[in-house]
């Protein structure tokens, strides 16, 4: 599967070159990074990457200054 395709179904996804114990979790169209410490880890570390399926349909522009990320850059 390609990266865009994993957003089509909730679940855990891994790649051969990921570090041991790491995978992506797709939940309700959002992407999380999940790190298990061992094979029996019931409480893995989970980080939200603020990524969701809708990102593949957006138009983007390059960011040249941090101030341009804010509506009111006074």
Structure, explained:
With 74 residues, the protein is an all-beta fold. It has one domain (3-69). The chain has strands spanning 11-13, 22-27, 30-35, 45-52. The protein has a four-stranded antiparallel β-sheet with strand order 1-2-3-4, with no helix packed on it. It starts with 10 loop residues before the first strand and ends in a 22-residue tail after the last strand. The model has no long low-confidence stretch (mean pLDDT 90).
Mean pLDDT, nearest integer? 90
Strand order of the largest sheet: 1-2-3-4
SSE pattern, N- to C-terminal: EEEE
Number of strands: 4
Task: For the structure shown, list the relevant keywords.
four-stranded antiparallel sheet, mainly beta, single chain, 74 residues
Topology:
Elements: E1 11-13, E2 22-27, E3 30-35, E4 45-52
Antiparallel strand pairs: 1-2, 2-3, 3-4
Q: Summed up, what is this model?
A:
The chain is mostly beta strands. 0% of the residues lie in helices and 31% in strands. Strand 1 and strand 2 form a beta hairpin.
């Amino acid at each position: 599967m390609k990266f865009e395709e994993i957003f089509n179904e909730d679940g855990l996804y891994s790649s051969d070159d990921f570090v041991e114990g790491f995978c992506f979790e797709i939940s309700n169209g959002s992407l999380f990074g999940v790190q298990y410490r061992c094979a029996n880890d019931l409480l893995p570390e989970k980080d939200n990457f603020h990524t969701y399926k809708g990102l593949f349909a957006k138009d983007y522009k390059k960011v040249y200054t941090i101030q341009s990320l804010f509506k009111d850059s006074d």
